[in-house]
Every structure is written in structure tokens, then in C-alpha cells.
Automatic annotation (TrEMBL):
One GO cellular component term noted in the UniProt record for this chain: type II protein secretion system complex
Keywords annotated in UniProt: Cell inner membrane, Cell membrane, Membrane, Methylation, Transmembrane, Transmembrane helix
Organism: Rhodothalassium salexigens DSM 2132
InterPro entries linked to this entry: T2SS_GspH
Pfam family, one: GspH
Protein name (Swiss-Prot/TrEMBL): Type II secretion system protein H (GspH)
Gene Ontology biological-process annotations: protein secretion by the type II secretion system
Amino acid sequence: MVLVILGLVSGAVALTLPPGRASLADEAGMLVARLSRAGDEAVISGAALGVRVDAHGYGFWRRRQGQWLAFTGEGLFAPQAWHAGTQADLVEAGGWFALDIAADADPRATPPAIRFYPDGTATAFTLRLSRRGQDLVIEGDPAGAIRVADGREPGR
């Protein structure tokens, strides 16, 4: 219950920041809140959730009947564009991950790079956000924990 309340409060705060005025730290904090809530939602709903990251922003997906289906519309899991000037580099455990899905790939059949499972586990990842010379790193571990670090290399 506490996790649900924290997720709702985090989501409400994240969704009320004015677009274009958020610092890189604010943008990273909003993403961490949404990622944390996605992990909670996977456990609560019993369905895997995923996040696709590309050069334009990120979007949430839910696994249903063997397919990945995009969340659309408004709300905590609505697609989100990066603020002007923000660049993203995603590293999955084991190496760099191409931010864009191949043009001929079916996104419903291709799993998102970041995934949260009903048992509370997740894919390990490192996401570097950069804007105007500032870098922040968001790290996710296999146990589903997510944190913001400074722009140094992960683990240092």
C-alpha cells in the first residue's frame, strides 16, 4: 500500500513540472519515478511492463497475450518526449543497446530494452542523460532497484 501511495505521489509531482523548464536532474527524477512505478505495476498487475527509449523520448509497454502493447493517452505511463537538448544513451547489461528498433521490426514482437517482471525482477540497464554539458546516469539492477547517479562511469 505504501508503495502504491509513493508511486502515485511521485507520478503526480512528475506530471506537474512545466515542460521545458525542468532541469536535467528534474527530468531524470521524473523518469526514475515513472520507472519505479512501472516496476510496482508489474508486480501488482501480474503483467510484465517495458520501456522503450529512443532519441525523441520514452514510452511504456505492457506484455499481453504474447505481444508488447504500447500505453497511449495521458497519465503516468503516457509517452514522454525528452526536453529540448536532452540526449539519451542506453546500455543494457552486456553492451550498448540500439535506441531505435529496426525499421522492419514489429514493435509488438520485439521486447523493450528495459523490462519489469511480475516477480519484481528487471533487466539491468544504465541510461545516460546529457544536456548542455551536464550528464546524469540512471541505473537499474536485476532486483528492480533504480537510482540516479552523477555522470561518472557506472560503478565508480
